[in-house]
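Feature request, filed as a ticket because there's no other form

It would be nice if the structure record came with a short human-readable summary line next to the C-alpha cells. Right now we just get the raw output. Example of a typical job, pasted below so the devs can see what we mean:
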Amino acid sequence: MDTPRAARGHERPAPAAFSPVVPPAVEIERLAQVFKALSHPVRVEIVSALSACAGACCGDIVRNLPLAQSTVSQHLAVLRASGLVEMRGEGRCCHYRLAADARALVETAIGQVFAARGCGGQTPNTLQVPSGACRKDTE
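Raw output as currently delivered:
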C-alpha cells in the first residue's frame, strides 16, 4: 500500500523564502503570447525576413518557405495575435509587415521576465539556497 508522502517524512519545504514578484495576470498573458509567437522556427524566420524589408505579400512569404500557404497563414495568425506582425489587405493580397514596436515588445518581454525578483528579493545571480532546502525527486 502506498503511504502518503507527508507520512513518509518527505514533505516539501515550505516556500516561505520564495516570493516572486511578477507582472499582473494580464501582462503575463501578453508575455506568453510574445514568447509563444517566437517559439517556432518558422515564425522566427518570418519575423527575421520581415525585419529586413518594408513588408511582404503572403504569397511572397509562402514562396520563400517550404510550407503550404495554409500553414504559413496559421503562423502569420499567431504572429498577428502576439502583436509582432501587422496585416493590411490590398485587394486579394494580404500584406504583412513587422509591427513598428515589435523589437521593443520583445525586448520588454525579455526584460520583464529577467527583472522579476524572487526568493526574498534576491536576484538569481545572488540567490543563496539553504542546504537541504531542495530535495532530489528520486528520494
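Something like this underneath would help us a lot:
Residues 74 and 81 are 11 Å apart (CA to CA).
Strands lie at 56-57, 85-90, 93-98.
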